C-alpha cells in the first residue's frame, strides 16, 4: 500500500522522476566503468606500458565524472523538489481533512495524535521516499547491472555471489514484524506524551489547584520510561537490520576472494579481470548494503503510512454534498423533529421542534446541559442531526452549499479565539476584501472603534497570546466586530457576554440590542436579565422546548422560566459591581431559611460578604474543611471530584442564583468535591463563624441543615454522585 501510493505519487511528477532516473543511470555508468577500467588499465595499459591507452582511459573517466556531476546536481534538485512537495501535499491534505471534521473526530484524535502525524509520520514517509529514490534507486539499478556484468565475466563465481546475497535479507525477514510492532508502540506512546504535554499546558491551573503536580509528573514519567525502553529496543533492532547484512557481505567477500584467487591460480581468470571482478563485486555488495540500509526507514514509513491513513480514512460526520446556493433567509430557521446525541445512546435532543423567525432577537435559555449550545451547533451545521432536519426557510441545510450558509451567518462564542496578528487582521479575517471604511464601520457597530484608535498602534496593534494584552470586554467586542464585518443576515451568540464583568456585559449587551434592529440575532445565554430584553425566549429543558414566549408571557406561565428567573433575582450590585447585597425575600427561597422573619433574614443578609473569583479558581477544595456557604450571583462553576485513581469527574455545573456548601454552616466537615469556576464569578459568602451565633436563635435553621446533612450522607451511602460541595 505504501509503495503503491508513493509510486503513484512519484509518477504524478514525471519530469522530476525522469531527472532523478537520469541522475541514477549516470551514477551507475560511472561506477561500473570506473570498476571495469581496472581490467583495461592493468591488462591493456600498465602491463604492456601503453601510454596512449592510458591517456584514453583517464580522459574517458574524467569526462564521465563531469557528466555524472552535472546529472547528480540536477537529480539532487529534482529530489529536493519532489520531497518538499510530498511533505507539503500530505500536510495540506491532512489539514484540509481535519478541517472538515466534527466532535467525534476530535474526540478520537487528540491534539498529540494529530501533531505526531504532521511532525513525525509525514516526514517519515518523506524520508523513506527520498532515500528510496536516491540510494535505493541507484543501488537497485547497480545490483542488476553489476550482476549482469559479473555474470558475463565469470558466471560460476557470480552464481555463488547471488546465492550468498540472499543471506543479506535474512535479518529483514526475521526482524521485520518485531520492528513494525515496536514502531507502532513507540508512536502510540509519543501520542500520549504530546497529548499530555498539551493537557498540562492548557490545564495548568486545574493541575495546581487540585495539587495534581505529583500525579501528572508520575504519569509523564511512566510514559517517558515506556518510550525509553521501547526506544532502546527499536534502535537496537534497527541497528541489527544494518549490522547483520554487513556481516553477511564480509563473509561473502571472503568467499569470493578465495574462489576468485583459486580461479586465477588455475589460469582461467586473468589478474586484471580478477581485480575488475572484485572491484565490481565490491560495488554490488555496497549497493546491496545500500538497499538493506533502507529497510529500517521503510518499516518506519510503513507504520507511519498506516497511522496517516487511519486519520485520512475517517469520514466526516458533516458531509458537504449540497450543490444549491442557499437563498437569503426571509422567514425562519427551524429544527424539525431533530434528535441528536454526541455519544450513542445519550440523547441530548429528542424530537425537537423549534421555529425561530428570521426577524428580531431570540434568546435560548435553560439549565446547564439542557442542549442550548447544541441547538446552535446544529443551526450552524457544525453537526448534523441523527434524525430530523434543520432548515433555513424551506431549504434543508444539508442540500445547500455549506459556504453559502456560512456567508449568511456570523458567530461569537464565549471564548472567542483571537489570532496572533494585528487587530485589523483579526477583524478582517471575517472579510479579507474589506476596506478601511467597512472595517471601521464594523468596529463602531461593535462599540470598539474609539478604544482601538486610542491604542498607540491603532488598528495595527498586535494581539498577543490569544488576546492576553486586551481586557475581556475588548476581546469580545473585537470578536463581535469580526462577526459583523461579514454583514451577516443572522448573528449567533453563544454566551458571548456572560464572562464579562457586569458593567462591560451591560454595555456590550446594549450594543448587541442595538444591532437587533437590522438583523436576526439568536443568543444562547443563561443570564436572564438580558434574555428578558429579547423579542422571544425559547426555554429548553432536557433537550426539549419547555416554554416559548416573551419574558412577560413566560413569567405569567409560572413554570421553568419563572423558577430560573426567581433564582437570579434579589441581588443588588453596587455601582461598578464591587459588592452585592442579597435581599431578604431571596434568602427566604432557600429551604433552610424558610419561615424566618424578615428582620432575621435582613440580619443574615448583612453577614454575607462579596467574593470575586477569576476563571479556574478553586473556591472549594475537595477534602479541605469547609466553613462557608456560597451563593453564585454571577458566573458558572463546575462541581468536580478527583477519584482515588486521580481521575477528574465532573459532577454538575452551577450558575447564577445557585448555591453550594450550606452544610458548612453547621459543621466543619471535609468537602466531598471541589468547586472550580468556569468563568469569572461573583459570589456571596456566609461564614460559619459569623452565622453560628444565630443558630441558637433560629432552631428551625439548625433542623433544616441537619436534615440536609442526613440526606447527603444517605446519598453518599447509596453512591449518588451529586454533592452540594
Ligand atoms: N462534545 C461533546 N461530547 C459529548 N457530550 C457533549 C459534548 N458537548 C456537549 N455534550 C453534552 O451534551 C449535553 C448538552 O450540552 P450543551 O453544551 O448543548 O448544553 P448547554 O445547555 O449549552 O449547557 P451550558 O449552559 O453548560 O453550556 C450536555 O450533557 C453535555 O455534557
TrEMBL record:
GO molecular function: ATP binding
Superkingdom, taxonomy of origin: Bacteria
Keyword Nucleotide-binding: yes
Domain called ABC transporter: residue spans: 333-567
Domain named ABC transmembrane type-1: residues: 18-300
One Pfam family, short name: ABC_tran
Annotated transmembrane regions: 12-33, 53-73, 127-151, 157-175, 244-262, 274-299
CDD domains on file: ABC_6TM_exporters, CAP_ED
UniProt KW keywords: Activator, ATP-binding, Membrane, Nucleotide-binding, Transmembrane, Transmembrane helix
Primary subcellular site in the record, as a coarse category: membrane
Location of the protein in the cell: Cell membrane
Protein name as it appears in the record: ATP-binding cassette subfamily B protein
Naturally occurring in which organism (per UniProt): Paenibacillus eucommiae
